[in-house]
Amino acid sequence: TSVLVLNGPNLNLLGLREPAIYGSDTLGDVEKLCRATAAPLGLDIDFRQSNHEGVLVDAVQEARTAHRGIVINPAGYSHTSVALRDALAAVGLPVVEVHLSNIHRREPFRHHSYVSAVADTVICGAGAHGYALAVTHLARLLDHAQE
Ligand code: DQA
Q1: CB of 136 within 8 A of CB of 146?
Q2: Keyword Amino-acid biosynthesis: yes or no (predicted)?
Q3: Which of 2, 9, 14, 38 is nearest to 131 (CA)?
Q4: Which of 34, 43, 73, 141 is the most buried (most CB within 10 A)?
Q5: How close is the Cα of 75 to the center of ligand 1, in Å?
């Protein structure tokens, strides 16, 4: 079983970027954590990052036939992108949204995510560990879908 872990803009700079907010783990570390979490659950991970909204929309559309579920950190596009939300709604796969930081404890413009309304689950404020929680929970959603 294969799942997509999709990362939005500026997450390529993880580790360098505002470490007090986002932590010192790099995106490579996050990828390793996702793979280590997924392997014993029998999940294969397609781990991707893009700074471009349309590339993220394409990745979500491709997941419709290539993957069984999606973990997504939409980053800045969480707060702006109707297109990404619509893509997630269109493919109809289980979606777990993850944010490293607790977006509700930050600036008001981060409090609303367009993606949350089409996500099954939202995890925020757990740092990089949130990705491990997200992958674990997606596996659970997929198990329950099979029953
Ligand atoms: C983020 C939170 C967003 O508000 C921000 O734009 C990001 C990262 C997080 O993981 O905490 O780029 O999604």
Answers
A1: no
A2: yes
A3: 38
A4: 73
A5: 4
Q: What is the CATH number of the domain that holds 7?
A: 3.40.50.9100
Q: Which residue has the tokens 């781990």?
A: 47
Q: CB-based burial of residue 39 (10 Å sphere; 0-12 exposed, 13-18 middle, 19+ buried)?
A: exposed
Could you tell me the distance, in angstroms and rounded to a whole number, from the CA of residue 99 to the centre of ligand 1? 6
Decide: pTM greater than 0.95. yes
110 has binding-site annotation:
yes
60-70 pLDDT per residue, tens: 999 999 999 99
Per-residue pLDDT of 88-113, as tens digits, reads 999 999 999 999 999 999 999 999 99
- What CA–CA distances, in Å, run from 48 to 8, 31, 56, 59? 9, 9, 9, 9
Ligand 1 atom with the shortest distance to the CA of 99: 10
* Residue of 100, 106, 107, 122 best suited for mutating to test ligand 1, as the one with most atoms within 8 Å of CB: 100
User: Domain range for residue 32?
Assistant: 2-146
Please state the domain count of the chain: 1
